[in-house]
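Tip: read the tokens left to right.
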């Protein structure tokens, strides 16, 4: 019989094995130098000891191919993100599968793409300490520790939009909102200390500078979020002031807490039960500021800004959040993001207005009213006293008036009303039943109104009878012709249908399922182009030939023979082609197929009948002023899609008139996008300044061989923009819009990258939804700028 071990022996065994047990746990918690994670891999995160938090790669919602380097709550449904890698310029790198983050020997976290190109790294080490390890802590803080046990770097010192209990925000720290709920680039709001006050301000998405400060959050020098969930501001005397009152904190210790500056500008304290009874649960709002976000940036003295919902929109605070709607006659610029503002549903043309500024054909318009609504700014005319009828009539006959706001006469001391006429873009729209005593009158186009030029003749009785007679004759003749042709056409179609079935079966076997791209053989494309006989153009990527596919519903195609392509094998080429094939937008040239046979690399695009913008601009038949405006708008929409909306963001690297093609309807379509990665290294560079030269892309003489941008800016500053319309009567009649276009162009070629607007902002400027401020000089003296678009 074996006797049980004595208590002394058990104690000795536990004492001896305890260091081994602790060592095992520590090795599981700590991240050693050289350890790495891969996006989309089986082990894509480092967890905290309790498992509450995880550091690693999170897939972007609705896009399983892109990932974000982040920290999130690992035990909460939805895995709420509380930190993400972001540069000091506000860009957040989204990465693809197999991207890597590694703890290096220099004490940095380094994020690289599958090609080993560096995308982001943690801040530089500030001391000479040697790195020991890194760890994801149970507080939600990820730290890199030195051998002396000090923290070399930690996420708590570089917050993004969220702070957690035990975290502090001092005068050097700030919180920046995200651009949208699932877009983690820096957004439109910032929370920071400034001259002893904790302030919330808006960020100009154009200049990236703060404005519209909101002060009532409190005075002090440090924001403290203690481990019980209380948010306090430490004032000058050192005593804490509760920002979130203590009586609103539910069950300290029983909940997770976070304080997040939302993309809508509301700073909110949330709680989540650690052990929900039903296994689910959700984040609850404990406290938030400001209480009325719509009114917050209206009552201040600054007259600039868009308000929480963007230009031409109306903001209503519901449960502490801004609810954005478009007024009558307007619709959202982006249906997926109502915070970007609204645009007018009908286009306003110069021919709508008389030279004196009055409206032509006022019977085309009517008014829709909205009570308790106001636009505090955008005034250009005031009528007092004014009745509602007088207010309507004044706005109706004024071509610049988009909306008139009437104050209720019964609330005025003298019993008369005041009418404020406002023009586009409408700023800081606001709706509130309790505090607004005004009614907004929106001038909208009647549903049955036609957008015809005033000099277009309207059909009278005589013209109508003549049209009926002509139509009758045509119908009778066509009926006979159609009957005789039907039999012949039917037999031809039957033969073509049988042939088409055979062709479709052969083509279907060579289609890429994900992108619907067709794989061609080199011989097929050689026959389609008649031996590459008819050349359409040449560029940095290769030569383009006209081809014809008899077996396809698309007869004519453009076949691009790629030259000097990186020879990295079939898989790499098809990967890049697949990315291009997944981009679909009306302002992008569509890729139909490709050839990847031996050394041959060819791409097959839809054929653009009107050629390139370059040949169109400087040909014999120049586009009209309106056509040029439509082309410019189309290009910006295409670039906006490439930069922000497609699954894989694409930087074109070679935008120029030769790469803008025009279809039968003169719709602008961008070509050669997504090809930069296919070129050999000597053909591509990643630049932060202006790419290429600032040469003369005009066909008239300029003074003293000046560089185009410099000459144009001099003309703008000197008030001589008329030089641009020397032989253009349409442009001379629209100098206001010409000046707007020039200002947009100067912002786009700014030497300092942070000053350049996004393509979405450019598109909104061209739509008239965003005001264009006066640009600074776009280039420093004695320098050559470079840019990427």
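Filled-in amino acids:
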């Amino acid at each position: 019989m074996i006797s049980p071990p004595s208590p002394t022996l058990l104690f000795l065994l536990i004492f001896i094995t305890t260091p081994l047990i602790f060592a095992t746990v520590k090795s599981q918690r700590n991240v050693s130098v050289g350890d790495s994670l891969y996006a989309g891999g089986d082990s894509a995160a480092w967890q905290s000891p309790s498992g509450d938090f995880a550091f690693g790669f999170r897939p972007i919602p609705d896009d399983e191919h892109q990932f974000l380097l982040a920290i999130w709550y690992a035990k909460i449904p939805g895995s709420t993100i509380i930190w993400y890698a972001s540069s000091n310029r506000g860009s957040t790198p989204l990465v693809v599968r197999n991207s890597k983050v590694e703890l290096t020997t220099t004490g940095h976290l380094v994020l690289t793409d599958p090609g080993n190109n560096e995308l982001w790294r943690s801040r530089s080490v500030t001391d000479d300490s040697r790195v020991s390890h890194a760890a994801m802590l149970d507080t939600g803080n990820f730290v890199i520790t030195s051998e002396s046990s000090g923290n070399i770097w930690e996420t708590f010192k570089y917050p993004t939009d969220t702070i957690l209990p035990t975290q502090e925000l001092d005068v050097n720290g700030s919180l920046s909102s995200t651009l949208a709920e699932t877009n983690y680039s820096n957004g439109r709001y910032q929370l920071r200390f400034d001259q002893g006050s904790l302030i919330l301000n808006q960020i100009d998405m154009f200049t990236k500078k703060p404005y519209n400060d909101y002060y009532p959050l409190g005075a002090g020098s440090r924001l403290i979020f203690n481990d019980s969930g209380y948010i306090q501001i430490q004032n000058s005397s050192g005593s804490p002031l509760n920002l979130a009152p203590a009586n609103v904190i539910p069950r300290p210790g029983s909940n997770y807490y976070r304080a997040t500056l939302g993309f809508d500008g509301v700073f909110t304290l949330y709680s989540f039960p650690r052990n929900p009874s039903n296994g689910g649960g959700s984040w609850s709002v404990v406290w938030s500021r400001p209480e009325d976000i719509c009114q917050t940036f209206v009552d201040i003295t600054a007259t600039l800004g868009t308000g929480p919902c963007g230009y031409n929109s109306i903001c209503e605070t519901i449960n502490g959040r801004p609810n954005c709607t478009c007024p009558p006659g307007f619709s959202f610029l982006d249906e997926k993001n109502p915070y970007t503002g609204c645009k007018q549903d009908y286009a306003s043309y110069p021919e709508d207005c008389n030279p004196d500024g009055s409206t032509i054909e006022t019977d085309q318009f009517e008014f829709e009213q909205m009570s308790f609504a106001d636009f505090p700014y955008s005034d250009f005319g005031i009528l007092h006293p004014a009745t509602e009828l007088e207010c309507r009539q004044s706005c109706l006959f004024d071509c610049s008036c988009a909306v008139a706001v009437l104050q209720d006469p019964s609330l005025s001391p003298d019993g008369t009303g005041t009418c404020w006429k406002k023009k586009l873009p409408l700023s800081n729209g606001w709706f509130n039943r309790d505090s607004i005593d005004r009614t907004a009158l929106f001038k909208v186009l009647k549903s049955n109104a036609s957008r015809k030029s005033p000099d277009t003749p309207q059909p009278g009785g005589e013209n109508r009878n003549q049209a009926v007679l002509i139509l009758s004759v045509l119908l009778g003749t066509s009926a006979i012709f159609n009957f005789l042709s039907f039999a012949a056409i039917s037999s031809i179609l039957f033969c073509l249908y049988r042939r088409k079935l055979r062709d479709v079966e052969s083509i279907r076997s060579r289609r890429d399922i994900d992108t619907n791209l067709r794989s061609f053989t080199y011989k097929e494309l050689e026959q389609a182009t008649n031996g590459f006989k008819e050349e359409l153009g040449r560029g940095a990527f290769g030569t383009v030939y006209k081809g014809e596919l008899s077996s396809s519903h698309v007869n004519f195609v453009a076949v691009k023979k790629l030259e000097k392509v990186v020879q990295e094998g079939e898989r790499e080429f098809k990967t890049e082609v697949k990315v291009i094939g997944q981009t679909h937008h009306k302002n992008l040239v569509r890729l139909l197929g490709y050839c990847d046979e031996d050394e041959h690399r060819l791409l097959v695009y839809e054929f653009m009948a009107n050629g390139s913008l370059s040949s169109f601009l400087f040909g014999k038949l120049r586009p009209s002023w309106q056509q040029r405006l439509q082309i410019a708008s189309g290009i910006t929409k295409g670039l906006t899609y490439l930069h922000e909306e497609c699954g894989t963001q694409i930087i074109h690297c070679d935008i120029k008139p030769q790469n803008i093609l025009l279809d039968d309807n003169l719709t602008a379509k961008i070509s050669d996008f997504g090809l930069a990665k296919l070129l050999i290294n000597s053909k591509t560079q990643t630049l932060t300044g202006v790419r290429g030269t600032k040469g003369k892309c005009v066909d008239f003489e300029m003074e003293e061989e000046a560089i185009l941008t410099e000459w144009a800016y001099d003309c703008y500053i000197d008030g001589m923009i008329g030089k641009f319309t020397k032989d253009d009567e349409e442009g001379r009649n629209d100098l206001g819009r010409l000046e707007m276009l020039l200002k947009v162009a100067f912002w786009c070629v700014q030497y300092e990258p942070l000053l350049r607007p996004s393509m979405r902002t450019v598109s909104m400027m061209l739509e008239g939804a965003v005001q264009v401020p006066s640009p600074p000089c776009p280039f420093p003296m004695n320098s050559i700028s470079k840019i990427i678009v």
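The first strand starts at residue 30 and ends at 31. The radius of gyration is 32 Å.
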